[in-house]
Amino acid sequence: MNSHVVIIGAGIGGLALAARLAHDGYRVDVFEKNTFPGGRVAQKKIKGYTIDVGPTFLLMPREFEELFSYCGESFSDAVELERLSPLYRLHYTGMKHLDVHDSLPLMRKSFYEWDAIHAEKNTQGFIDFLSHEQEKYPRIYEKFIAKPARSVASLLFSPDVLELFRLDGFSSMWENISTYFDDDALKLAFSFQSMYIGESPFVAPGTYSMIPFVELTQGVWFPKKGIQHVLLQIEKLAKKKGARIHYGKKINQILIEDGKAIGIELENGEKILFDVVVSNLDLPATYDRLLPKEKKKKYTSERLARMRYGSSAFLLFIGTKKKYAQLEHHNVFFSDDYKKNFDEIFRTRTIPNDPSVYVNVPTKTNPRLAPKGKQLLYVLAPVPYDAQHEGKPVEWSTFKEEYAQTILTLLEKRGLGDLRKNIDLLEIFTPEDWQSLAGMHLGSTFGLSPTFGQSSVFRPKQKSEEAENLYFVGASTHPGSGMPLVLVSARTCQALIREKNK
What pTM did the predictor assign? Predict the structure, then answer.
């Protein structure tokens, strides 16, 4: 009989792994502290508005198709997607904007509208960037994403170590894109995507330029019924395959005996034994909260404190009585001094007074996500997870209203002049809420930062280095953050478990 597996957490990674393993014939139980699935892929329904709290769009749909296909089902039958055009609208100082498209003719038109004098040069730079990334992407995917991560030694003594140079591993995303554009605004347009994984483009390795490349070549997609609908379909798939999911069950600790994970202890003290334990809780949070101190060797509290974590996110969910035609489905309003903004978030760790702000308008694509005639704005300002303000640590419970007003003022100055007058709903979500909702370590929304020293073989392994029979799936382990990569994480974790059980 195949092993009995427990998965801690019903996030997208945990549910995808549950579906895969159950399909393989493993007995699978999933324990989730919340009374609903999702982790960061959560949803709120307030006053007729349907609000996705976490991710707001879908990339790399083939990864979703692969999961369903592996389990003998059809993703396209389960989820209706719409490809967005433009991908997003980028708003700069002085009311200038740039629409980014996954069509070369439309992108060329955008370059002409932006700067007619240099449009042909910028179009050629864009083509050269895509060409370079097209050469990189298959090698990155096959060698460093699709397979379980190897040891550092195995990389250093293999020909693949040279790939790190060819794949821009030793330059930043900003340095990489600077090869193709002279205009800083355009450099920002094709490097700000590092913020999807919680890091500055001045720090994130140039390897991650694959993110804008994927957007431009595979599209940006929106599930018609919202992002959580995707997760609910994965949950349905896992249940159909035979996985049992237990909600409202908080884990107190992972049981370790003679260097092996043997099961879990629930908050009520009940102990349940399993052959394999997998944590879909954020990896640093797992080591910090679920492993007894005396059982930790490599990832001690001291080491976890020294690691670099991605930014957090301050969110406003705004329902409006007016529809703002100048907004596309996805919008980014860049700070007047974007370099200072990145510096505040990642170096001085202070609350930005002039933040760059992402505004998602899901009702642009599906008006039914808000009451008739109204619009839903999802507004995100990246902030440090351990933010300081006026020399003191931020207490979000007392500061959140003030910062919400700062962001509303910014949006009104940037073109939404009567926003406050037209607010029908205003909900605030802070880094403390991320920690409460999804157990993110220190409130970092994106988990471990994807720096060079925390990527690929240098990222904490999916097969625990602390205990046998303990595995990880999710954003802070291999291969990294973002829903598609978390689905890959489920696949590579499955391969490791199957290898163990041969």
Answer: 0.95
